[in-house]
Amino acid sequence: MQTSRRSQLLLWALTAYIAFIFVQSLFFKFSDSPETIYIFGKLETWAAGLGAPGLFAPGGIFSAYVVGSAELVASLLLVGGLASGRALIHALGALMALGVISGAIFFHLFTPLGIEVLNADGSYDGGELFYFACGVWLASAVLIGLRKSDLLDFWKSRYA
After folding, report:
1. Quick check: 78 and 93 in contact, CB under 8 A?
2. d(CA 137, CA 142)
3. Model confidence over 84-130: pLDDT tens digits?
4. For residue 25, what are the domain limits?
5. Count of domains for the chain
6. Could you tell me if residue 160 is inside a domain?
């Protein structure tokens, strides 16, 4: 019983962390905040230089609205799956969160965006967004590990 209670607490803590980070960022992504315009503008300039203009622009496949929507869906799957006791839904939310945040980490590390991002006031964030992204990645990976049997059971029932 104690292990089960600890496991539930861990599931909720990791889920709450991911959902908090994702949901609080929605305001910035959906309101065209200066920080969001800077981030996606920097990525758009980089992509255009590689011959892929429009990728991160408003209306692009990786625009702030698309990324924010994916973060919202992942949060809903995580919280809804855990609250309803549907482990597979919870696991799918963790997989989606891992995918979304892996993209964010990639773009911080391998593009001119960099680890430190410019704030609206002209200062740099000291890597705060990047470190939060790393925390979300780690939390998502742990959730996937904790839910691996649910994912494997689903996979086997579909494809075995």
Report:
1. yes
2. 9
3. 999 999 999 999 999 999 999 999 999 999 999 988 888 999 999 99
4. 2-155
5. 1
6. no
